[in-house]
Structures are given as C-alpha cells and as structure tokens.
Specification:
Elements (H helix, E strand, L loop, with lengths): L1 E5 L3 H14 L4 E5 L9 H8 L3 E5 L4 H5 L5 E4 L12 E4 L11 H9 L4 H11 L7 H9 L4 H16 L3 H13 L9 H18 L3 E3 L2 E6 L6 H11 L4 E9 L2 E8 L1 H4 L4 H9 L4 E5 L2 E6 L4 H9 L4
Protein name: DDH domain-containing protein
InterPro entries: DDH_dom, DHH_sf, SSDNA_exonuclease_RecJ
Organism: Thermococcus onnurineus (strain NA1)
Length: 311
Amino acid sequence: MHLIVHHWDTDGITSAALLVRALCLEDFTNMTASIGEFRFDERIRKAIEGAEKLYVMDFNVPGEVEKVNIETLFIDHHTQPRIRNPKVKQINPSLDGEYYPSASLVVSEYFGLWNAWSALGVVGDIGERAFEVPRVNELLDREGLSREEALRLVELMDSNYIAMDRGAVEKAVAVLLSQGTKELLEYEPWVRRADEIRRTIEETLSSVAERNGFAIVEFESPFNIISKVARRLVWEMGFRGAVVVNKNFHGKAQLYFRVSKEEAERIDMAEVIERLRTLGTNTGGKREVLGCVCERDKIEDALKIVEEYLR
C-alpha cells in the first residue's frame, strides 16, 4: 500500500491528486494530519507501519520525516532543513534558495504533469497574486476556467479544513480525481459549507484593530478561518501584515501571522517560528506566514513575541 500524507489545504489536496495521477497509483491511501497540527499523530504512524512507500506532500514536518524507516518521497516548498535520512528523497526548491509559491508547482515540475490542479495549488496559497504567474493563467485558460472560478474552487476545497472535517479533506482527493474540475463548482457539500464560512469571515473582519499599519483581530470560533482572515487583511485590505488570534478554537488557541511581500524582506519569519516553538507551541510556516497552535494560557506570551515585530 502506498500512503500519501498531505497538507489539509487546496495546495495539499491538489499536490496529492497530481501525485496519484502522475504515478497512476491505484492501491493508495491518503491522509491528512489533525488539522492545525504539524505532526504525525498515532493514526498516521500506524498507517506508516503498514505502508510500503510513503509520500509527504506540502506538509512541513521535516522532523517527522527524518524519523521514518520506509522509502519516502517528500515534496514541499516550505523553508526547511535538508533531510539526512537515506530512505527519504526530498524535493524542495527552497533548499537551493528558490522560491516556489506552491507545492503543486513543485510536483508538476518534478513529474512533468501540468493541469488546472497545478494552478489551483498556487491560487490556494497566494490568492490573486497567483494570476501574476504566467503558467497559472495558461493552465486555467487551457481548461476553460476563469480567475473567479479558480478562486471559488479554492474556497470550496478549503471549506473542508476550515470546518475541521478531516475526513472531508481526505475525501477531497478522491473527489478531485473523479470529477471534472468545472463540475466541482456545483459540488453541493462544499458549496453549502463554504457559504456558511463566508458569512463567519465577514463578521470577524468587522472587528479589526490597527497598529503601525498592521491589522490585529481576536475572536472565538469553531471554524479554522484565521488564514483566510489574514489573507483578506493583507492581500485585499492592504495592511503591512496581520496578526489573527482565535482564542478558543476547540479548546485550544490559534495565532496566525502573515506579512506582505515587502515586510517579508524585513521580518525573519524562521526566527519568529523558532521563538514561538520555545514556548512549547506547535508552530510552522514559511517566508511570509506562520501558524501557531497552543494551549489557551500560552497565547498571550506567543502574541507578545509576534508583536515585537510590528514596528
């Protein structure tokens, strides 16, 4: 059995689907981690024990991958150390100082397979800026998808993880593989969920504070909307960056810190991530963004660290 462990967002889902299509996999299981946590839980560990080969797609867990004892293909685009485990083949342009906006592009380039999924991974990770990438527009045009339809497809796919439905995230790979991309715009389970989430995001954006050009918003919700809120604040509303805190998310606290492209030149996000990890938080990210999950009593200490960079 081939096991695919992938991130829970559109880029992770499309990267997994591209891998299946490129390798013509039939006997495979795809799994995502506990949503919001960058680690292999017991369920994934047991699955790895029974797998003959492991694929880790768009999931920034180099520490976990370093410890695996089966043949592994690790494809990613996040900043991470080079893996020393001889059983692991690591494909990541960031190791050579190259920036790729999505893992889907890395997968497509590695296997030579390009379709709308390749483009949707980029749209999922960087939003409307994806349309500045010529290859993205070319792939969408080839499959007759407009920019608005691409953005809507990302909203639909991401609704699964935002609702914290791990099973639906995993099922999304099969849905993507079995249906035409345009047909997914009318896939009722995703449409219903996405519309409910959209209403919640609009309510959250109505309570934003500002400091030195950075947006700060705190709220409580069972929906995992912090990344969506941060993107809206930075990409659409023009803030230098956004600090978004969900103070009661299924008994935990979440912190999401996203900065503009310009601020990413000034702020060492890897440094911020390491400092947050010293608090015992579960934190991961890349050049322009980090996500942190911690106990509710640690969120104020985590917030103080991030606020040091809002100058």
